[in-house]
Design goal:
The protein is mainly alpha-helical and 94 residues long. It has three helices and two strands. It has a domain of 44 residues: Orthogonal Bundle (Arc Repressor Mutant). The relative contact order is 0.07. InterPro entries: Arc_rbn_hlx_hlx.
């Protein structure tokens, strides 16, 4: 004869009470606190401090050209843009 739902539930409840829990216990390890100094290394191995996000929209062809120069010269796009802005600002000073 088939076991009733209540009988199956009672058997399961008894099994849960008597058998030890088999789930693995995770070990929690604290994460080391990150260095709070905002420093990044440039491709020319100099440390850059006080970087800020500076987003601009440029034509698609210009962005593609900058990416290609980055690949050709093995330089970060950030370094190429910084050099271009510095050259522009220096030229304005006279």
């Amino acid at each position: 004869m088939a076991e009733s739902l209540k009988e199956r539930q009672a058997r399961l409840a008894e099994k849960l009470k008597t058998e030890p829990h088999k789930a693995p216990i995770q070990e929690v390890n604290p994460v080391a606190e990150p260095d709070k100094t905002p420093q990044r290394e440039s491709t020319n191995n100099s440390v850059i401090d006080d970087l800020v996000q500076f987003n601009v929209k440029v034509p698609k062809a210009m962005a593609k050209a900058v990416r290609q120069v980055s690949l050709d010269e093995d330089k970060d796009i950030r370094d190429i843009v910084q050099e271009a802005i510095k050259a522009y600002l220096d030229a304005r000073k006279g």
